[in-house]
Recover the amino acids of this structure.
């Protein structure tokens, strides 16, 4: 079964931000190493990096007319910052991997969803 992991950044420090710079060099290195190890995990297909939420365009169609709004539809804390796909035997394996994603411990959250299953 495949599981999509949606990485919600929340208050996770992003490289280049003052919050990131407040982390020690060791903490920064650990984040990069953790993501690198996750991307090398058998069954993981890493997602491409997503742009910042403030650079998003939200699209709606109302009464047949396309409407666009600059920025995300959700608040910044709810914005998806990245994703990855995991091929795993069960949801427990997906949860175990989600717990290793640095954003889960640094102020964000990981949503795990089965792919191709609606129930």
């Amino acid at each position: 079964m495949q599981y999509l992991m949606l990485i919600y950044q929340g208050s996770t420090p992003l490289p280049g931000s003052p919050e990131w710079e407040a982390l020690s060099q060791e903490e920064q290195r650990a984040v990069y190493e953790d993501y690198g190890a996750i991307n090398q995990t058998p069954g993981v297909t890493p997602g491409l990096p997503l742009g910042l939420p403030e650079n998003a365009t939200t699209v709606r169609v109302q009464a047949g007319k396309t409407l666009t709004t600059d920025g995300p539809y959700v608040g910044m804390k709810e914005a998806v910052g990245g994703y990855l796909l995991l091929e795993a035997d069960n949801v427990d394996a997906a949860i175990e991997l989600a717990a290793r994603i640095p954003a889960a411990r640094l102020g964000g959250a990981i949503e795990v969803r089965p792919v191709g299953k609606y129930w």
Summary: Helices lie at 18-22, 25-39, 91-100, 102-105. The chain has a mean pLDDT of 90.
